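Aggregate trends can hide what the representation actually does to any particular protein. For completeness, the protein is quoted in full, as a sequence line and a line of structure tokens.
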Amino acid sequence: MKNPSSWNNSQPRVVVIGGGTGLSTMLRGLKNQTRNLTAIVTVADDGGGSGVLRDELGMPPPGDIRNCLQALANTEQTMADLLAYRFPEGRLKGQSFGNLFLAALNGMSRSFDEAVAKMSEVLAITGRVLPVTNEDVRLIAEFDDGGVVPGESHIADYKRGRECNIRRIRMEPELPEALPESLEAIRQAEMIVLGPGSLYTSVIPNLLVKGIAQAVAESDAMRVYVLNVMTQDGETEGYTASDHVRALQAHGSRRLFDFCLANDAPIPADIRAKYAAEGACPTVLDIQEVERLGVRLLTAPVADCSSGRVRHDPQRLARELMALYREKSPTRIYG
């Protein structure tokens, strides 16, 4: 256990691990709670504009990294709008300027993480963003019907067309080398947050990188998994909270985290109906099953439905995470 007297309760060292829109949404809130913030981000995406740049330039996919950089940026609104701009037509149709900016910096740099660091400086971000690895990695999903699907962008499509579940996710190549700075950030963290985000394609891929799951499991930081508010069509239909926890433990370790933070704010009926038509529903909180797995499930009203879609409210989520951290440290021992 770290010496409690060394903990900075007002500006704790927080490491978040994941990818996708869930991670960047949470970062928008956390940057107002601590400047000692590190985002460790998956680089397994192979679809959309990121996939095009990955195939044509041989670089890691920039999309999830770019979203996190935008979330942590301290720039004028014009720059924010520029990074988010997507070309409406031509060969660049659908591609974001932010992705192209990061691709250009990658071409000027010795490594992808160096390019990310340069973009971080340009945007004057709060905290830092690190790719979990610099290696060219691909996700492969194995299903319980015997199917084997390579490529992150193809996994959901396969599952939607069949009555089957993902049995496990693996990486190709297996156990790619982690960015040393990512491992060091985990070792120095006072709080580690996994998720929110797509279970099998945003959160778990980080645990398949050499040393990441072990570093999290061995950490004496407070460790929290932020549960998705809704299940996800093509990945987690019918999953309960304990199913999410069980999948993370199976791909990492039973000691990955001590707490699971879930939403308990009601989801309006019309929005629930919209999600039901897409094969998704609010994640069932089977508290006793979660606790049998050695994890304490906590709830708070952290969902935001104002856009007509269900998202985490970045400010509420960040406040709940910091309240949990301050409640459990430094005077109380947990584990």
